[in-house]
Amino acid sequence: MSDQHNHVSLSDPAVLNSQTLPQILLARAQTTPDGLSERHKQLGIWREFTWSEVLDKVRAFALGLEEMGVTHGDTVMLIGENEPEHFWAEYAVQSLGGAVVSVYPDQTGEELAFLASDSKTRLFVAQDQEQVDKCLDIIGDLDDVMGIVFWDGAGLWNYEHPLLKSFDDVSAAGQKIHESSPEHYAGIVAKGKSDDLAVLSYTSGTTGKPKGVMLKHGYMFDNSTRILGAVDIKPGAEYLTYISPAWATEQMFGLAIGLIGPMVVNFPEGPEEVLENIRELAVDAMVFSPRQWENLASIVQARMLGAGPVRRKMFDWGVKIGKAVYVEQLEGRTPALSARLQLPFAEAFVLHHLRDNLGLGHADVALSGGALMAPDVFRLFHAMGVKLRNVYGATETGLLTAHTGETYQLETSGRWMNCAPLYGDPVEHRITDDSELQVRGGSGFAGYFGQPEKSTDALTEDGWYATGDAVSLTDDGELVFLDRVKDMRELKSGHRYPPQFIETRLRYSPFIKDLMTLGNETRDYVIALINIDMEVLSRWAEENGIGFSTYTDLSQKPEIHKLIRVEISRINSLLPEGSRVMRFANFPKELDPDEGELTRSRKLRRAFLEDRYGDLVTAIYAGTPNVDLEIAVTYQDGRKGILKANVNITDVEAASTSKKRNQAA
Amino acid sequence: MQGTSLAEKEPSHTAPVSLSIRNTTLKFGGVTALDDVTIEVREDELLAIIGPNGAGKTSLLNVTAGFYRPQQGQVEMSGRDITGLRVDQVARMGVARTFQGTHLFAGQTVVENILVGRHMRMKSNIFQAFVHFGWMAREEDMHREVVEEIIDFLEIEPIRNRAVGTLGYGLRKRVDLGRALAQEPDILLMDEPMAGMNSEEKEDLARFILDVREARNIPVVLVEHDMGVVMDLADRVVVLDFGQVIAEGTPAEIQKNPAVIKAYLGA
User: Which residues of A touch B4 (CB under 8 A)?
Assistant: First the structure.
């Protein structure tokens, strides 16, 4: 497999002669000082940064941090959206031999306090007032905090605190040091080794407290070259950074491949302007989470719902032709002649404009990082002519498989990528009897920060990393992700069903924002709890003259239930009989991470939800048509209250047919 | 948190007077809208003017902004007499105002509406405006930049290219505030900014009003009906009733003042 790794980066002296990311940055600024490195939309205009400008920023900030006391082995926490300062701060800390912890900007003070103390954070680099407030709240409980540095001063005009400094002030101090000793920075960067810690990437904590996976510089190099060997990212490719650096995937793409590729990293104006920014940029490479791709697909569908009948017909026709040609080709079949003849027209009238409008016109490398995406979403993008590819991996092991080449299967996570011999042993895998994937090789799993026992527990006795993912391999050697091993559920009958499979497929519905399926060894069948999509459904209700007041009210309307029921029975028709969703109810409120119902990365907290909505679950299995619920809620301003709602329950399969089926069985 | 000092800046009571309205009387025929009103606004304060319907609050703003000319009395801005100046002249003296309801161009975008606020700072005349190169283009770039800074300040980037008519009321009020700020005023007069808003929109706007004072260091005069907002935001409150100042003081003092209670409850 290693013969794939003949990519340019492995013959690039800037990469070959470097052991750490800042060393590459230094080399790039020396060899191509005027080459474009970053672009940021600020005050409505795309502003560009060359390699030498980025180096100036990173160097000044690094020396300023050094003066504040940051040194080799220290941890610095970065909190904020994807903005250039976030990246510069990371490279600056790494220049000094320190490691960074990036956290999601919407994490609560409490979560921040845990992450800061677990990672032994000595300094915070925070975006704005919101994040500074959180830091100020928690530093009293931490030891040896050297400072809080912010890069956006809005709202901080009157703040006075001995530890609080602005990014610009720290950089100005660093710049002075550089002017008096111009060789100093290069000297410290040269000391960096590939075995130095670069990043602590925290697992999302769906099971217990988050753990900080130690990522070394060697890991960044290894994983970047795995990717570059598998998908065609050309040097100088335009990349949009959108997924948070709190996620290891963005550490590999935006931060590592940004330097190793190299790529031009584009920073959107803000999370709400991303779609518009993508359209302006038409980038070459982008990585979204499956959820974000699904969102994009829902937006296409929602817009089409709102379009006139002629445009809708055109869209349907164009996508049909696209499917008949592109999806067929992708799956290795020859498209029908009639479809091939119509394709140029479909391209000219529909597909080209669709891609253009979404900003995907040049997206040669469109990747979905994460577990599983609804195949329907996948097909839709391919039908539009966007070659979406899955990438699969775990923070601990790095990226493992990706869709490569021109033909691959939608349902899989692609073929194995491998480690360049320069950066580690070949990556090996095996699948246990429980379908669990186990992996070893590459730059390896360096352990959890400060938790040697848990690090050892993650490995099998013979030293393989147990991923906890249930997978299978196709005949072509492509990996199929089924579910987490512990999440494959057994029903009373002994039938095992994959809840995630069902859920991802259902999430594709424009009416469903999120959902949870239930069913275990004490239950006879599978049920679903639905979080309806308020935005889409309120518009739908308006158009259909259905009056409603709140989310609670809308979610329980019989018309809405009817709509959701159609969606579920469509998915049911794809499932084997025993795995079908028999009954469902809609959550009477929107699921909310502030109440612990979702994690910060918007994953469901299942056990908590099952407990919180226990009465509802009981009622669904009891076969009653509705139930009165009382849910304790916390409002945005901190007040607590009780939400009372009468929640309706709907049978998906008509009673008569399910009876018939029972008799037949 | 030792050594922390995050408290709101307290007004000094000694800062120079920004706006001064002295012994002003305004009559419409037989109706006396303002009766010998005297109010001073210092450079670092947020002053609220409250009063029952018809008390003369909006008249007071209109006299200050140059919409009405008072029969008696004087209005001074930074020590200069502005009584009886035209609206545009008053605006050039550094007085900006927002309106009850909004007075925006519904068909124009947010950027264009805020750009209107830059009009009085534009140096080119109507004939030069037909040529778009050289320093004309540079001037427009310069104004665009100021507008973008305001958009950033008010956090309305996602809607910058939307027509104002398609926006919700709360956002339109924010754009109206942006237009006033684009004048780079020395004082900001706001006429019932909270009217017709839901509580979330009110909280948003209240934060921006406080930010205006903190970031721009200019005094704000707020004519407002919403007592909750007034009590939370204002440093000092002036109460008008039938065109006369009946009370003046901190929000806490005003809440206890018997004359105010009487004016509001009619007891």
Answer: 136, 160-161
Tokens representing B145? 């930049």
Q: How many residues does chain A have?
A: 665
Residue (of B116, B63, B60) closest to B85 by Cα position: B63
CA pair distance A58, A318, nearest whole angstrom: 48
Write the pLDDT tens digit of every residue in A510-554. Answer: 799 999 999 988 999 999 999 999 989 999 999 899 999 999 999
**Residues on chain A touching B158 (C-beta within 8 angstroms):** 270, 272-273, 276
Alpha-carbon gap, residue B162 to B153, rounded angstroms: 18
Whether chain B has a CB inside 8 Å of the CB on A140: the answer is yes
Task: Tell me if chain A has a CB within 8 Å of the CB of B40.
Answer: no
Predicted confidence at residue A141, as pLDDT, reads 87
According to CATH, the topology of domain B39-265 is Rossmann fold (3.40.50)
Residues of B in contact with A157 (CB under 8 A): 214-215
- What is the domain partition of chain B in residue ranges? 39-265
Say what the ipTM of the complex is: 0.71
Burial class (CB in 10 A: 0-12, 13-18, 19+), B126: exposed
Q: Residues with Cβ < 8 Å from A496, sequence gap 6 or more?
A: A488, A489, A490
Number of A–B residue contacts, CB under 8 Å: 45
DSSP state of A211: -
Q: Could you tell me the pTM of the whole model?
A: 0.76
Across the interface, whether the CB atoms of B6 and A158 are under 8 A apart is answered yes
* CA atoms of A283 and A392, how far apart (whole Å): 22
From the list A43, A161, A269, which residue is nearest B4 (CB)?
Answer: A161
Side-chain-side CA neighbours of B133 within 13 Å: the count stands at 0
Residue B158 to residue A140, Cβ atoms within 8 A: no
Separation of alpha carbons A260 and A238, rounded Å: 14
Contact of B228 with chain A, judged by CB distance below 8 Å, is answered with no
Which residues are CB-neighbours of A510 under 8 A, at least 6 positions away?
A298, A301, A302, A305, A533, A536
Instruction: Calculate helix-pair angle for B135-153, B169-182, nearest 10 degrees.
Output: 130
Q: Which residues contact A280 (CB under 8 A, 6 or more apart)?
A: A41, A46, A359
State pLDDT tens for residues A626-637.
Answer: 999 998 887 777
Residues of chain B positioned with their CB less than 8 A from the CB of A43:
145, 148-149, 151-152
Other CB atoms closer than 10 Å to residue B79's CB: what's the count?
9
